[in-house]
Write a structure and sequence with these properties.
Blueprint: H1 5-74, H2 76-106
């Protein structure tokens, strides 16, 4: 059974459309690949910058901790006095808060 001219024209038209769709898909794939590469480069730059900032922050924290440690070692009396004073102030604040809450209970 031979194809009629009309059927052949329809098949040719479909082949051309399929070929055009393939070309469009290839263009889309290429564009997506390029965009993915650009995004990956941007993300890498952001990661590098964040990593550098985190590294600097860690160095500063180590430096600060070392200086506090040196200060404590050089002035142990001052540090213990400050801790005791902080404890006393905290205790006093706790007492004041507990007394103010006991007045609230009397209203009931």
């Amino acid at each position: 059974m031979a194809d009629t001219p009309k059927a052949e024209d329809t098949q040719d038209a479909m082949r051309k459309q399929i070929a055009e769709l393939r070309r469009e898909m290839n263009k889309i794939n290429k564009t997506l690949a390029e965009r993915a590469e650009e995004v990956a480069e941007q993300a890498s730059g952001w990661y590098d910058a964040a990593s550098d900032r985190a590294s600097r922050a860690a160095r500063q924290l180590r430096s600060g901790a070392q200086s506090v440690s040196e200060t404590v070692q050089q002035n142990p009396g001052t540090v213990s006095t400050a801790l005791v004073l902080g404890g006393v102030v905290g205790f006093m604040i706790g007492m004041l808060v507990s007394q103010s809450s006991s007045y609230d209970r009397r209203w009931y």
